[in-house]
Amino acid sequence: MSTPQHPDGDPVRDAGAPRAVITSGLPSQLIDTDPDETQEWVDSLDAVVDHAGRGRARYLMLRMLERSREQQVGVPSLRSTDYINTIPPEREPWFPGDEHVERRIRAYIRWNAAIMVHRAQRPGIAVGGHISSYASSASLYEVGFNHFFRGKDHPGGGDQIWFQGHASPGIYARAFLEGRLSQQQMDGFRQEVSHPGGGLSSYPHPRLMPEFWEFPTVSMGLGPINAIYQARFNRYLHSRGVRDTSDQHVWAFLGDGEMDEPESLGAIGLAAREELDNLTFVVNCNLQRLDGPVRGNGKVIQELESFFRGAGWNVIKVIWGREWDPLLAADRDGALVNLMNQTPDGDYQTYKAEDGAFVREHFFGRDTRTRKLVDHMSDKDIWALSRGGHDYRKLYAAYKAAMEHKGQPTVILAKTIKGWTLGSHFEGRNSTHQMKKLTAEDLAAFRDRLYLDIPDEALDKTLPPYYKPGPESDEMQYMLERRRQLGGAVPRRRAEFKPLKAPEDKAFDVLKRGSGKQDVATTMAFVRLLKELLKDKELGPRFVPIIPDEARTFGMDAMFPTQKIYSPHGQRYTSVDRDLMLAYKESEQGQILHEGINEAGSAASFTAVGSSYATHGEPMIPIYIFYSMFGFQRTGDAFWAAADQMTRGFLLGATAGRTTLNGEGLQHEDGHSLLLAHTNPAVVSYDPAFSYEVGHITKDALRRMYGEDPGAPLGGSRSPDVMYYLTVYNEPYNQPAEPEGLDVQGLLAGMYLYAPGQGDGPKAQVLASGVAVPWALRAQELLAQDWGVSADVWSVTSWTELRRQADAADEWNLLNPAEEVRVPYVTQRLQDAPGPVVAVSDWMRAVPDLIAPYVPGGMATLGTDGFGLSDTRPALRRHFHVDAESIVVRTLGELAKRGEVDRDVVRQAVEKYQVRDVQAAPADTSTDPEQQPGG
Ligand SMILES: Cc1ncc(C[n+]2csc(CCOP(=O)(O)OP(=O)(O)O)c2C)c(N)n1
Ligand SMILES: [Mg+2]
């Protein structure tokens, strides 16, 4: 029985066998057991080089390599192969479609895609768009649409497909032919607000077209990494028995320029390691990006081949169209392949912007042997030598091989021409990416090239017509039938799932009780809650903790033995801590996604997990916990795309605050991520102070995103398509029990009065959030004891939600001047509160200042602006002037401004507490070294 082979000759690994750690390295220590025999082989090689030349020697060596692979000798594989198609013509499968009809369909789609963009440039609109990218990739998509992409009605559940963002016109054009979009909608391309009946979004934006697009792509690099983690998540769901994903495939269509993004290549190792053969990348290698060539002096296909092969992917190059096959077959001495190998991309681009004579002269003419090869061909024939990415059958062969390949993900590197079929002003031109209109001459030539039956007089310069054959035409029938066979239209998003039951109240008891005599940080409080929630029969299995190598820092290592870490290979080694209670446990059924030190990958996992309610109709709850500093700052764009994808779930910005993660210094101490989070409209941020607050927020969030939403705390409905961002801290302090009659509505809306001031001296309002609430409480004591001031302390759970609610009221008032004025919640709460308002947090002042416009009488703010530094917490808090003593001084200062205390009192306070002196700050007694981060 012959061993199954990869197309490049690698034997398929037995899934049960241990994976070799050295996949293709050269051994460094070899023992020669028969030197005479070795010498004979070496002499033979030398003789071939002498008599038949290096070309022949190379052939023999490669042939030996191929043979030894077939024999499973285990020699290193090549990092790159010749610049020819990976699948030779004799191994191409039979093409099951009707090539002619499919070419016609493609012509209609090509036309409508370009015309849609062209029409969007009409006077008064001129909203831009892209023509050339789809023109280069039409065949790449159409092979998929007609033969591979499975829709949501497919018994397997359908594929997940990432379309290249600026190829969207082609995808709309197909939907138009399929009858999913009307001409009116096509004319609304990029006019989402003003177009009658609604418009089409510029790029794949699920949030803007929630029944059409599934995966946002246009921030380059996020598509590839998200696709990898989607494929991985599909496996995870399968392994955990949540859903059978065995018949689902993930496709990502990418630009060759896009592959320069670090995110594009950064996770390809994971895809190989986890043997994601449910994943195919198709890279449209048109050799150009926006400004010019991707690798003018090099060869992007070769470079990508070596990256992907090196990482352990199956690589299929589709470089040349079928017209080249006879030439390559006649290339006895390898002169043509040699030319192909040596020609840089910049030249290949230029050839296609010239003509057949130019190609004869500057390509084939460089070697007398290759010049002779094309002697019998006219310039027109030479011009018609196509690129692989435009040859439908070659692409079909590649896609089929990709689908059948086992044990590795596949990348198809398809060489195309940017602007293909659009004529000489577009094809291969450096400016082609930006061109969005065709001249009258271009339009006519384009029509002729596509053999479309559109009369000259219909070719209006501004509004040339769309082309749609009648429903009875062969093409329409064929196209719709193909989609029916493959499970319906693509792309399509469906967000149907059974809401999850609300968690049992008892899960929250642990937080309500407070921490008694113990000091507990809010991070630990959240982790305790999570452990409780994991016990819930229905909800428990739905949680997916995602950790970028900080589980121990956050006290989540306790979950390793119970929830286990997902690994498709289980745990095949003898674990060093196997005898410990808290052993590091990997398992095929593991619930935790441990991503290693990889925030980009974690954000991609978060997106895949958090959109499972739509992608798979299975609501899963991602709990992505990370160093807050490495969240919105590092992967803010990924979170933005997650928001577009309507991802739901929890982001836990742990070790929050500029002074709380003390010791770690400038690059770790986060005093601003709440401000960054506020810029994302789908992110609902909270900065809780106490564990019971964490409990209420989490409970409300679960119901909003996954269950039957009880509605907003202040009334009205709210979108479930949000992600909750909770900033939690690593500083242990006493967690009070939930107060009697807690103002839950206020807590959820963003603020509630936690500790009213006592006594009848001058009044003040101190607003604090998160870890600053205990400082405010201490300040309250000092103000009363030392200065006879009675301060109310508010816990502000969310500066950002207060601001949003206020902005909404403000806008309503603006537009409805005749109606009763709506008073923002924050204004309502503070308008009768006596005395000055002082706000404090462990964040930069701009965070509390978000509510300032709505605070009657204004507000004074204390904050941690500037870079963090390493020191003790008291020193840092004194340095930034946010500690209790600083709050006191600030409050007295505000009272002095209002004439409620004497100015000299402020001077006395500054002196008494020595607030200018960091060394005078009282020592920190609360630090528990066990709860310090690992760095
Ligand atoms: C992160 C990011 N940076 C820049 C851009 C702007 N941009 C849009 S398309 C494009 C060029 C794309 O080239 P390539 O990936 O080769 O795609 P092609 O159009 O050639 O198929 C650029 C730079 C973007 N969309 N995303
Ligand atoms: Mg490109």
TrEMBL record:
Q: Where does the Transketolase N-terminal domain lie? A: 163-323
Q: Which GO-annotated molecular functions does the record name?
A: magnesium ion binding; pyruvate dehydrogenase (acetyl-transferring) activity
The answer to whether the entry has keyword Metal-binding is yes
Instruction: Give the catalysed reaction(s), semicolon-separated.
Output: N(6)-[(R)-lipoyl]-L-lysyl-[protein] + pyruvate + H(+) = N(6)-[(R)-S(8)-acetyldihydrolipoyl]-L-lysyl-[protein] + CO2
* Every Transketolase-like C-terminal domain range: 750-883
Q: Quick one: which residues bind Mg(2+)?
A: 256, 286, 288
Q: Which InterPro entries match?
A: PDC_E1_N, PDH/Transketolase, PDH_E1, PDH_E1_M, THDP-binding, Transketo_C/PFOR_II, Transketolase-like_C_2, Transketolase_N
CDD domains referenced in this protein's UniProt entry, alphabetically: TPP_E1_EcPDC_like
Q: Where is the composition biased (Polar residues)?
A: 924-935
- Domain Pyruvate dehydrogenase E1 component middle, by residue range, is 504-736
Q: Where is this region: Disordered?
A: 1-21, 916-935
Q: Name one Pfam family in it.
A: PDH_E1_M
Q: What does this protein do?
A: Component of the pyruvate dehydrogenase (PDH) complex, that catalyzes the overall conversion of pyruvate to acetyl-CoA and CO(2).
The protein's name is Pyruvate dehydrogenase E1 component
Q: Which organism is it from?
A: Geodermatophilus ruber
